[in-house]
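User: Hey, quick favor. My workstation is busy. Could you predict this chain's structure for me?
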Amino acid sequence: MTRVFMAAAIAAVLSAQNPAPSSAPSPDTSCSEMATALQRMIGQDSRMRDWPQLARYREANRSLAAPAAGDSRVVFMGDSITDAWQQPRFGGFFPGKAYVDRGISGQTTPQMLVRFKPDVIDLKPKAVVILAGTNDIANNTGPMTDEEIEGNIESMADLAKAHGIKVVLSSIMPTGAYHVAPNGVPQSTARPMSRIKTLNEWMKRYAATNGHVYLDYFTPMLDDTGMMKAELTGDDLHPNLAGYAIMAPLAQAAIDKALR
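Assistant: No problem, here it is.
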């Protein structure tokens, strides 16, 4: 958002709150609606100033202690599913392991690609676990084709490989339509299973061809109808405690395979 546009928005709110005596009130716009719209614009402007959210982990990266002798550092790069994993209510994030969570809620593959150097490469891990793509499908940062998503994942994998970091590519999680969505759009509509399956199939082939490890979260979380099991999620997208309990040993097995 430009400063000119911001100034215009502020002026519009002030005008709505203090109309000139001769002005007629608009039947469609209230002061509170204008103020809410302005707050959203300001928030968006703030996010756009750090679009990839490089500041999120900047201090944590600087203060990250070296792993203990014999420990292998592993970085998890991802979106909200990775971001939330470190919350105690989900069982904790691999206690006792030198694993580093670098997930950011809502992120897409182009954002992850921009921050891949400071949040992964510069931490000098032995391996990286990449979980990405569901927010691209949902158009969080604009429409994305499957080829564009694949290209960004491939670029992250190439960067890791060039720096001697083993790569684990995680399948995109399944979605469902069992819970009431806040916006009325089921997750299986916002994130169609057909696209998820297509990207996962590509990812599995790409991993095999390039010496990476493919981590299949998708299959164990499916129910008989081909959607995410209702008991593993509270919103048809994010895993709950039971969901993470399935994911953790699968991730560990994939890491072990990558580091062998």
